[in-house]
Amino acid sequence: MRLEPIANPSALRSIGLPAGALALTVLVASLLALIAGANPFATLGLILKGAAGSKFALLETLNRATPLIFTGLAVAVAFRAKLWNIGAEAQLYAGAIVTVLLGTGALPLPSALLIPGIALAAMLAGALVLLGPVLLKTRLGVDEVVTTLLFNFIMLLFVSWLLEGPMKDPMGMGWPKSPALEKAARLPRIVEGLRLHWGFALATLSALAVWVIQTRTTLGYEIRAVGLNAEAARFAGIPVGRVMVKTALLSGGLAALAGFSEVAGLKGNLTLDLSPGFGYTGIIVAMLALLNPLGVVVSAIFVAGVFVGADSMSRAAGVPTYIADILMATALLTMVLALKLTRLKVRWR
Amino acid sequence: MAPDTGAEVVLRLDGITKRFGPLVANDGISFELRKGEVIALLGENGAGKTTLMNILFGHYTAEGGTVEVFGRALPPGHPRAALDAGVGMVHQHFTLADNMTVLENILLGTRPLLSPRLGAGAARAKVAKLSRDFGLAVDPDARVGNLSVGERQRVEILKALYRDARILILDEPTAVLTPQESAALFGTLRKAVAQGLSVIFISHKLGEVMEISSRVLVLRHGKLAGEVATAKTDRHRLAEMMVGAEIAAPRLSDRAPGPALLTLSNVDTPRRGSVPGLSGVNLTLRAGQITGLAGVSGNGQAALAALIGGLERPVHGGMELHGEVPGDWSPRAALAAGIARIPEDRHKTGTVSDFSLTENAILESYDEAPYSRKGWMDWRAAEGFARKIIETYDVRCPGPSARIRLLSGGNMQKLILGRVLEAGPKIILANQPVRGLDIGAVTFVQNRLIAARDEGAAVLLISEDLDEVMALSDVIHVIYEGRLSPAFPRGTMTPAGLGQWMAGHGFGGGAHAA
Questions:
Q1: Which of B91-105, B369-383, B494-508 has the highest mean pLDDT?
Q2: Taking 60 as the threshold, does the pLDDT of residue B1 lie above it?
Q3: Which residues in B lie closer than 8 A to residue A231 (C-beta atoms)?
Q4: At which of B191, B209, B243 does a domain end?
Q5: pLDDT of res. B511
Q6: What is the b/e burial string over B304-331, where b = at least 16 CB atoms within 10 angstroms of the residue's CB?
């Protein structure tokens, strides 16, 4: 088997293959529904309805997409520079911790100053969490996949200790959770009465900002050059190590915003189940978007929709929500393959 | 090696046609190889030599035409078929495992996967006999990683012979050899044909083609442009057939050398993996002068290029630029000191393949005005610069926004040349600037380097092609195991004399004159 590049893929190829991937994903989901003893069409219909079938469902999907946009962006930014940040989860929690620290009465400021202040501090915290692994990488050549991944567990245990100890809510009836944010520190809702909060708008704006950085700024040029060919970048005089560090700060900061927006926009306090793996799912989101920051918004909404839809379907049809994980995995594998194949021709020999 | 007329035809290609999209890489190519002859396959890069060999070896499937070996048609698209039929190929880039011995490398892939024994005893005897018969002296128990390039090539040939190859194809075999090693290789090839083997010798070096082959096939733009008996032609006519037009050799005008712009005195650099460092190197690059660096590849050329290019610092000894010792030394410092760098590997070091021509054009100046202002890129200015290079340096491309990986090596090199020369450099480091380029591009690049020299730049030309070094240099150094020979002024050395230095003769026990 051999792969040959295609210079100008046909429309059939570039639309047909991703559509085929989607069809395959749907087929796999149908099979799973059959195995679970449910009607596949009804199951898929319920997923779709649960994800986007009503105003409530749609807003729930967008709410769920918000942290995924942030972590997806964090991953997309880092991967673009071939910095393998698997630690968005840890950076997310760093952002959440700082949000609780500063948002529970420590800073007597009006909302208009307090919220941006907390957001910036959260970004800084996330950036610092990634700074360690990236310095180990650029200085000593330590593999950042290992360090960032392991940092996730350290951070979870740290959060667990905080919630059992210094940050435990005295009014929490013994539950491991932090005190609630004060009203001034909460992100308001975009439309009063609906659950969607300003975190979603911030996420979308962040995607736009990342896109502008990548395509219009000198830093973006450096990041892309380092990611595509670090050797040529170094030869041309691009400070590869420094670009890596800047990329890490940006990536860690974006992931931390996920924690900030979840605590300040949705939950109101910090618990150990703040993130059901948003950091890891961010990798799927970024890969599905081919690391394109604007694509991240679309793919995060898609991924969120599948999860939200599956939750709702599970209640109605009795098919386990695991179907969402398998759907995600299938979608990722088939879609990445399909997008590769739009540019490459396979020759069997 | 008289032209064989009655000898058996061992390989017949008939009407081979291969298209890549709109490009016809091979257009109805037919030829025969007879028993006991050496034919040379001559052609510029992109003429279709590699494609043709890939078809023969089943890596590509031709749209039309047939391949017959010893009278039997090869099924298209089966890489093993050619090997089993007795065709052996020695690639330009060796395919040996460095951490295994010579014998193990030769046996690799000849034994069934689950065979319990290596069968080394019989193999050893066979290898020893082949070594003797073909003049391929190499220790079967030596680790390949410790062998010289010439020895490795012998292992590759032994590998093919061990598999009972009756037809040997050698792709640019002398690119990595000293003149003496090349002569030894030719000796082996003569022994091979005397024993009834047949050889296809792929090259673009006319001198060798004249020396070793009995017939020459010239490929141009995918077509067989001509077939001549070597005895009935000469280098000049072959070159014209290759290019399809007359070509002028580069000429160096007489010019008095200017002041020293870069001086290295007694410089050592560290060894990096398998790349030897420099030891006790003295070198002076003067304005208006091309300094040629001859040597077999892997003898420290990379270390010298890294040093002057700003990627490496001397651990010992001094460097002076424009009469001053540079404070900090990095690629940026080198660029700031007016050093233009044409890297050895244009794909890996010189360009970012997935960047556009525009993005590649500003790779060394992206953070300077007008391309970058206060952290924002000005893509219009960058594109203007790319267009200027494309026009001035005749870069053939779809446009400035095309990805550079789509360009041929020659056009890629022209873009790099434009990028570095447009900065008005004082010193030019040209590391293998024409390797792999077609003759048109070679002439273009060489003339640009000469023009820069005539305008007062100091040029360091690193090349493994001795002819090129001798044709273009005002003075020549030979590099051997990280050490530099004295400077030989133009016209004072013969190829054989330089070849002695390239093989390490003349370098005393560590000390040598500057």
A1: B369-383
A2: no
A3: 348-349
A4: B243
A5: 42
A6: bbbbbbbbbebeebebebeeeebeebbb
Which residues form the domain of B376?
346-424
Question: Which residue in the set A7, A221, A237 is minimally distant from B377, CB to CB?
Answer: A221
In chain B, how many domains are there?
3
Same domain (yes/no): B388, B476: no
A218 vs B21, B341, B377: nearest CB: B377
Determine contact: A224 vs chain B, CB below 8 A: yes
Answer yes or no: is pLDDT of B3 > 60: no
B328 pLDDT above the threshold of 50:
yes
| Same-domain check for residues B306 and B362 | no
| A195 reaches B (C-beta below 8 A) | no
User: What is the rounded average pLDDT of the residues B424-453?
Assistant: 89
pLDDT in tens, B190-241: 999 999 999 999 887 788 888 899 999 998 888 898 899 998 988 888 888 8
Distance to chain A for B294, nearest Cα, Å? 23
Encode pLDDT of B74-115 as tens digits.
Answer: 888 787 888 888 998 888 778 888 888 899 888 887 776 666
Q: How far apart are CA A318 and CA A316, in angstroms?
A: 6
Peptide bond into A133 cis (omega under 30): no
Q: Please indicate, yes or no, if residue B2 is contained in any of the structural domains.
A: no
The reported pLDDT for the residue numbered B245 is 67
Q: Tell whether B322 and B419 lie within a shared domain.
A: no
Q: From chain B, pick out residues whose CB is under 8 angstroms from the CB of A233.
A: 352, 363
Task: Confirm whether B41 is domain-assigned.
Answer: yes
Length of chain B: 514
The CATH number linked to B84 is: 3.40.50.300
Q: What is the 8-class DSSP label of residue B202?
A: E
Banded pLDDT at B514 (limits 50, 70, 90) = very low
Find, among A117, A123, A100, A115, the residue nearest to A274 by Cα: A100
- Measure the CA–CA gap between A322 and A327, rounded to whole angstroms: 9
In this structure, are B86 and B184 located in the same domain?
yes
A222 and B310 in contact by Cβ < 8 A?
no
Nearest by CB: A237 against B21, B331, B348: B331
Question: Both tokens of residue A88?
Answer: 């968005």
Contact B353 A228 (CB under 8 A): yes
The pLDDT, as a whole number, for residue A43 is: 87
Let me know if residue B4 belongs to a domain.
Answer: no
Q: Choose the closest CB to B366 out of A218, A231, A235.
A: A218
pLDDT tier at B119, thresholds 50, 70, 90: low
Cβ atoms A157, A269 nearer than 8 A: no
Q: Cα torsion for B287, B292, B297, B298, to the nearest 10°?
A: -40
Do residues B110 and B152 both lie within one domain? yes
- Residue ranges of E strands in B74-206: 87-90, 167-171, 198-203
Co-location of B200 and B294 in the same domain = no
Helix (H) or strand (E) holding B132: helix B120-134
Q: Helix A293-317 vs helix A55-80: angle between axes, to the nearest 10 degrees? A: 140
Query: Do B503 and B367 have their domain in common?
Result: no
Mean pLDDT, each 10-residue run in order, chain A (349 residues) = 69 83 89 87 89 90 96 97 96 97 90 94 97 95 95 96 90 87 90 85 97 96 96 96 96 97 94 94 92 95 92 84 85 86 74
What's the CA gap between B372 and A217, in Å, rounded? 8
In a domain, B300, yes or no: yes
Residue B457 sits in the same domain as residue B398: no
- Indicate the residue among B193, B213, B243 that finishes a domain: B243
Min CA distance, A64 vs chain B (Å)?
34
Task: Please indicate if any CB of chain B lies within 8 Å of the CB of A221.
Answer: yes
Distance (Å) from the alpha carbon of B164 to chain A's nearest alpha carbon: 26
